[in-house]
Amino acid sequence: MLIYVDIVAAFERITITPTGVDWEGEGLAGPSSTWTYLVDDRPSGAGVVRALASSPATNVLGGVILVPLVLLLRLAQCWRRSPAA
Question: Is the whole model's pTM more than 0.70, yes or no?
């Protein structure tokens, strides 16, 4: 809870003008983070996508669908390459 009090105190202390905040005057000489982390700091994407990717049900379903599909594609490749009788 202390961090919230500090944040509120900081925003009450700074002066916001029509041109914005004088960040250098407030002690922030440059960005404290890179753009990547300002946008999103989750390494593997959105929370929903990450949850689906890590779900055991999704992994099993993916295996059930992909294994037969890959086998069928491989059989089709072998059939196309086989010499005509």
Answer: no
